[in-house]
Design brief:
This protein is mainly alpha-helical. It has helices at residues 23-34, 42-50, 58-80, 84-87, 95-101, 119-135, 139-150, 165-191, 195-208, 213-225, 229-247, 253-264, 274-281; strands spanning 2-4, 10-13, 16-17, 40-41, 102-105, 108-111. Keywords: DNA-binding, Transcription, Transcription regulation, Two-component regulatory system.
């Protein structure tokens, strides 16, 4: 099986898509794919599909959706085995295989999936390895690993799937992971001295996330080390103005320390010095 979650939903078995066209079965498959190898309880599935307006027929309807998914699994399994399996078409053969792929467990359902077959699991694995490399001081390996992780994204996670309460939380968590990995990759690139080449990307990211202090601090650091001291100060002032207007708060202590370091010229130009340390530790 090949599962793509980091973008439009894509679930292929033997090269055949098993993604339903109807919205609610897509939700069901998406949630099972995100929580692959774990049992997703019936109440959780119902909450995702119907929210607080769960109909009396929910249990029957949910079983119908599961049956529909298993039929698509069976068709994909048969397509991948054109010999004996095709000869048994219509006899019920393959149903057991479908139930091993999408199994009924106590209180719920479980999708069988190897970690290496999911782009989400691969992203999380690469991100973890990149984070370890960054903490160990190997910025080059960290940058490469984190860039590979980010390259798995094909757009907004599950962009073509109706998102209910449960999937909404899952998607939010994935997007937060993506942002954190992006911040770490930029940190690694700053450590490698790639200040000037990061400016365009950081300007775009700060414009897109005007209250993200980590990105603002990284842009300030890149500008300072590229000779744009006054532009780095402008970034801080714009962040401060936005935070006051939107939230009524001042920038955090660590951002204020970075601002003072830039203002006084105490932020050294060596890649491993104050800017990144301030972002990590708050001074």
């Amino acid at each position: 099986m090949d599962v793509g979650i980091l973008g439009p939903l894509a679930v292929r078995l033997n090269g055949q898509s098993i993604v339903p066209s109807a919205g609610k079965p897509r939700q069901l498959l998406a949630l099972l794919a995100i929580r692959a190898e774990r049992v997703v309880t019936v109440p959780t599935l119902m909450e995702e599909i119907w929210g607080d307006a769960i109909p009396k027929s929910a249990a029957t309807t949910l079983q119908t959706y599961i049956l529909h998914l298993r039929r698509k699994v069976t068709a994909a399994l048969r397509a991948g085995q054109p010999g004996a399996a095709a000869d048994r078409a219509g006899t019920g053969a393959g149903a057991g295989d479908a139930k091993s792929v999408l199994s009924t467990c106590f209180g719920g359902y479980r999708l069988a999936l190897r970690p290496e077959d999911s782009d989400l699991r691969e992203f999380q694995s690469l991100a973890a390895r990149g984070s370890v490399a960054l903490e160990a001081g190997d910025a080059r390996a960290a940058s490469a690993m984190l860039e590979r992780a980010l390259g798995l994204w094909r757009g907004t996670a599950l962009v073509d799937v109706p998102v209910g309460r449960v999937l909404g939380v899952e998607v939010l968590g994935m997007e937060e992971q993506r942002t954190r990995v992006l911040e770490q990759r930029i940190e690694a690139d700053l450590l490698l001295g790639r200040h000037a080449s990061l400016l365009a990307e950081l300007r775009m990211l700060v414009a897109r996330h005007p209250m993200n202090e980590n990105l603002a601090a990284q842009l300030m650091t890149a500008l300072y080390r590229s000779g744009g001291v006054w532009r780095a100060l402008e970034v801080f002032q714009e962040l401060r103005r936005t935070l006051i207007e939107e939230l009524g708060v001042e920038p955090s202590h660590r951002l204020q320390l970075l601002h003072r370091a830039v203002l006084s010229g105490e932020l050294e130009l060596e890649p491993r010095h104050a800017g990144l340390e301030l972002m990590r530790t708050g001074g």
